[in-house]
Queue: 2 jobs
Job 1
Amino acid sequence: MRIKILAAVLLCLVFTSSIYSQNKYDISQFYNESIRFVKQPLNWEGSDWLKLGLISAGTILTMQADQPIRDAVLRDQSFNGTIPEQIGRIWGRGYATIFFAGAFGLHGLITDDQSTKKIGFEIVQVTLYAGAVTQFLKMTVGRARPYTNEGSGNYHPFSLWNDDYHSFPSGDVTLAFSLSTVLSKNSKSSFLKIISYLPAVLTMASRINRDMHWSSDTFLAAAIGYFVGDWVANLHEEQESSMEVSNTFPLTIRIKL
């Protein structure tokens, strides 16, 4: 079984634990927020369930086009080996995640830049959370990969160790959209916010082109990476906003006195 998602998570944690141990974004915060993430469905509101329903409906609808899309891609392999295809392939690999988490983390440590510490921390978090969700689905659903030629509707539930039946959803696309979402959410430029997703979209195309995943596999994986990344980034944004208010309030009181 390929364990690239778990390997990326473990390497990120090992590499960054020393970086964040003396900062605000530390292991204790990571642990507390991980518990909060696991419990999050218990606190979902109507809008959250609506999002889940839309993602599920979108996945099912995309499944109807899985075989036609695969047939079209196999007839035209002109995308294979091109620079965009290679960019997408690399962006979805675990070492791209490790590189960015390490680069931002080291920059934050050396320059004492809280913003880059935060980005590195969030990359590790989203990789762990989204990767865990994806790996759980892979191993329980057991969907056959396209290259097995068993058809888009062939499933072998609980195929824990057979990677041929770990098609749904795509691990590479999950990692790609997790990384892109963190970078996008931390960018102040509208252009960069949008362009950050371009390599992730190329990852989707690469995985389909290489006959490793069905289109619906990549659709669900993209949704997982995006929504988990959005949840983590919004959580930290709310925390920082609360801290700014609490730090400003006592100062206001002193001025009035």
Job 2
Amino acid sequence: MRLYYRILQLLFPAKCILCRTVLKENETDLCRKCRIEAPRCPVLKRRTQFLDSFAAVWYYEGSVRGSLLRFKFHGARSYASAYGRLLAMVLREEYPEGLDILTWVPVSPLRKWIRGYDQAELLARAVGRELDMVPVQTLKKIRHNRRQSRITDDARRRANVLGAYRIGKSADVSGKRVLLLDDIYTTGATVGECARVLRMAGAKEVHCAAVAAARKR
């Protein structure tokens, strides 16, 4: 069995999830250069109307942006495990007391069918393995709206997602501290709408975490 895995490593060597260079034996997920130079994002503890705090690993630019585009649109679903490990490190540090529910921002059924997977769900399962939490689907997307990435105006982004999500029939978030995961945080319109729905359903707190976030404009 050990020989089998050794052959696999020779045929399909592990690569850095950001720059895609072959990793050395002592490297995991990231090469040394990317681990040092990737644009780290500081934890943002600012509150919004419905969101209590926000955390991310990196800023959404350069090789980080390329990596997430491969993950989201080009079938690189294996990146989820690496993202999960890196994001869990941030979450352990920023929320040492833990949170009650781990959930995610879902894509529409049509988009999941076209893509073959829900990238935020994969991320939630990876983070859950690291934090010893079982992800719970609390939200459903009920409207297949236009992609947020194709809208530049903040007000139109908010309008585009308004009413697009609803709480699941079996979801119980009343009085709970919820951790909401997404792959990319840009203007906050999508997670803000999801947080609003969770708050309306009785959630005590809603905290968001993403792999990457856009720099504040």
